[in-house]
C-alpha cells in the first residue's frame, strides 16, 4: 500500500513520534522507488539525524548520491538559521543606511534565538528544496522530526504567507505615500539619502529591493502551501507503534494536520509482534490489537499497513533493501 502510494506521488512526508521507525520507513520507500527507476531525493529534517547512521555514510546539507538514482541530505537547523540570518542581514544592510549597520547586527543577534526562528528557517529550506527538487527529482521523501514539531511546521506556510502578504501591503502603502510626497515636492532627495544610504539609492530603488525580497519569499511559501495541500502531488504518512501513547498521538497529529489542510494518506504500524513466536509475543500482539482497534475507531478510513517486529536493527543498504521487500508485501 505504501509503495503504491509513493509511486503515484511526487512528495512524501513521513511523520510520527520519535523512535517509531520514520527514518527506516522513509529510507526503504526511497530505496524501493529508486530501484523502480525514479530519481529520488531523501531529506531528513529531524535535528536528531539518523539518516547517515542508517545508510552508513556521512551526509551533509546538500544532496549527495547514496545509491543509483537516490540522493540524500540532512538539513542542519542550526546552520540553516545562520544561512537564513546571513541572507536577511545582507539584504537589510543593502537597504539600510551604513550608520544603522549596528542596529541590523543587534536585530539579527536577537532574532537568532527568537521563538519560531528555527521553524521559519527550516521551512524556508524545505520550501526551497521542494521548489528545486520537483524539477530535479521524480520523488521527494521527507523524513520529518517528531510529531508536534511537524504539525507546527505544516501550519507555518499559511502563517508565513499571511505575514509576507501583510508586509507587502504595508510596503505598497508606504510606496504610494512616498510617491505622493515626491509629487508634492516634499522629497527632494534628502529623504532619499537618509533612507537609502547612498546617492544611487532613491526611495524607489529601496522599495523595489524590499519588494523583490518579499515577493521571492511569498512565491516560495505559496508554492510550498500549494504543494502540501494538493493530495495528488503530496502524501503525508504517519508511522506509529501499536501502543497506547503512539496511537493517541497519531490521532492528535492527524487532527492538527487536518486543521492545517493536510490529509493523512496512510498509517504505517511498525514493529507488529508476531503471532507465532511463543506465548509472550502472542500476548503482546493481542495487547497491540486493542490499541489498533482504538486507532481504527478514530480514523476508520485512512489506509493502514503493518510491518513486523524484526530481531535486529535496520542498518546498511542490505537491511534497507530487506525492509523495502517487507513494505512491498503490503503492496
Ligand atoms: N520493524 C522493526 N523491527 C525492529 N527494529 C526496527 C524496526 N523498525 C525500525 N527499527 C529500529 O528502531 C530504531 C528506530 O528507528 P528509526 O527509523 O530511526 O525511528 P525514528 O526515525 O522514528 O526515530 C532503529 O534502530 C531501527 O533500526
Ligand atoms: Mg529518525
TrEMBL record:
Cited Gene3D superfamilies: P-loop containing nucleotide triphosphate hydrolases
Stated name of the protein: arsenite-transporting ATPase
Top-rank EC class of the record's enzyme: translocase
The family this protein is said to belong to: Belongs to the arsA ATPase family.
InterPro entries: AAA+_ATPase, ArsA/GET3_ATPase-like, ATPase_ArsA/GET3, P-loop_NTPase
Superkingdom of the source species: Bacteria
Reaction equations catalysed: arsenite(in) + ATP + H2O = arsenite(out) + ADP + phosphate + H(+)
The EC number(s) this enzyme carries: 7.3.2.7
Domain AAA+ ATPase: 8-296
One Pfam family hit: ArsA_ATPase
Entries under NCBIfam families matching the protein: GET3_arsA_TRC40
Amino acid at each position: 500500500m505504501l509503495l503504491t502510494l509513493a509511486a503515484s506521488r511526487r512528495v512524501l512526508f513521513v511523520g510520527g513520534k520519535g523512535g517509531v521507525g520514520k527514518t527506516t520507513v522513509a529510507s526503504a520507500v526511497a530505496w524501493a522507488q529508486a530501484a523502480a527507476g525514479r530519481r529520488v531525493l531523501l531529506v531528513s529534517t529531524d535535528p536528531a539525524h539518523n539518516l547517515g547512521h542508517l545508510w552508513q555514510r556521512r551526509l551533509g546539507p546538500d544532496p549527495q548520491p547514496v545509491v543509483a538514482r537516490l540522493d540524500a541530505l540532512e538539513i542542519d537547523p542550526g546552520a540553516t538559521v545562520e544561512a537564513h540570518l546571513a541572507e536577511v542581514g545582507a539584504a537589510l544592510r543593502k537597504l539600510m543606511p551604513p550608520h544603522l549597520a549596528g542596529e541590523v547586527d543587534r536585530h539579527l543577534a536577537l532574532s537568532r534565538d527568537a521563538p519560531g526562528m528555527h521553524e521559519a528557517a527550516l521551512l524556508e529550506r524545505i520550501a526551497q528544496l521542494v521548489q528545486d527538487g520537483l524539477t530535479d527529482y521524480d520523488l521527494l521523501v521527507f523524513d520529518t522530526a517528531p510529531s508536534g514539531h511537524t504539525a507546527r511546521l505544516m501550519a507555518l506556510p499559511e502563517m508565513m504567507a499571511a505575514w509576507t502578504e501583510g508586509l507587502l501591503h504595508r510596503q505598497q502603502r508606504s510606496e504610494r505615500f512616498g510617491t505622493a510626497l515626491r509629487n508634492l515636492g516634499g522629497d527632494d532627495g534628502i529623504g532619499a539619502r537618509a533612507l537609502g544610504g547612498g546617492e544611487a539609492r532613491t526611495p524607489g530603488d529601496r522599495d523595489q529591493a524590499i519588494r523583490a525580497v518579499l515577493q521571492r519569499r511569498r512565491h516560495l511559501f505559496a508554492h510550498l502551501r500549494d504543494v502540501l495541500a494538493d493530495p495528488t502531488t503530496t502524501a503525508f504518512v504517519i508511522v506509529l507503534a501499536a501502543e497506547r501513547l503512539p496511537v493517541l498521538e497519531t490521532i492528535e497529529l492527524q487532527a492538527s494536520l487536518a486543521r492545517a489542510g493536510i490529509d493523512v494518506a496512510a498509517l504505517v504500524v511498525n514493529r507488529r509482534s508476531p503471532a507465532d513466536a511463543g506465548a509472550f509475543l502472542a500476548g503482546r500482539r493481542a495487547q497491540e490489537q486493542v490499541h489498533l482497534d482504538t486507532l481504527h475507531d478514530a480514523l476508520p478510513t485512512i489506509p493502514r499497513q503493518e510491518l513486523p517486529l524484526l530481531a535486529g536493527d535496520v542498518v546498511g543498504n542490505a537491511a534497507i533493501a530487506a525492509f523495502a521487500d517487507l513494505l512491498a508485501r503490503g503492496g
